[in-house]
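Hi C.,

You asked whether I'd gotten around to modeling the 305-residue construct. I have! Everything is below, sequence then structure, no commentary in between.
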Amino acid sequence: MTKPLMNTREVAEYLDINEKQVYALIKSKRIPATRVTGKWLFPKDLIDSWLLEDARAGLTEARQRSRKMGGAILAAGSNDPVLDVLQTSLRKNHPEFYIFSATTGSRDGLLALNAGYTDIAWTHLWDPHDDTYNIPYLAQYMPERRGVVVNLFYRDLGFLTVRGNPLGIQGFDDLAREGVRFINRQPGAGTRVLLDIHLDRLGIEKSRISGYEQEVFTHLEVGLAVLSGNADVGIASVAIANFLGLDFVPITRERFDMVLDQHTFFEKAVQVLMDVLHDPSFRQRVEGMSRYDFSDSGRILYAAA
């Protein structure tokens, strides 16, 4: 077992390098170390943190170099069909750039951005205190980054049921009725955050909702669960309801943003993505997609001082 404090020989073995290289790292002040009674000691927890930060810095530097002339933009967070159109439009107009996007949920997208694992976070986290989206969560989920929040679109979110809404679902209190089977989203998803806020306001115990523990990661999976009969109701965007031929009971119109670090915002790849947002061919493709509102698309809503 590795000791909490390592000497020079032990840290060299831990890092699989020559002991002389350890002294070179000490001399250049590139490794966390302390000197006690003439001997160098290395706290293991600080060495592990140093290794992680060095790996993150290397990953960020490599991505920045690759995007000067082209390359990949990494994205994580929420999901929406519009993002698929945005990605294909980027590839069509600028084939030198790619977007690789992971559906993690809004909260985990911000956490990944803070950790340096992604360039962009897609997010729609509602804050009931200020009745706004995303900005109030930056200090909590990405404190190490100077964030920029850019609007992508507004969309309608609501309850999805089969045609005719046979159980008469109209509000959150209906989810706790006997015989109603719900399909939920994973913790940290913007839809899950909104659900939990409303349940707390109404004093509805989550244990009363049949299916609260049944979780999926995308709006499409919610719609498919309802369409297949595995659930009676779920919460998703109106676009999914229209695509699958389901009934839609509106809950709210929410703001869907992308969040990124200020340094990343000025990179060529991101600026090209911003251009695509205003491209007439992109707007034409998404105009008919289920009541999306692009009036603020591309607008910077917040930039950290």
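If it helps when you're writing up: The chain has a mean pLDDT of 90.

Thanks,
B.
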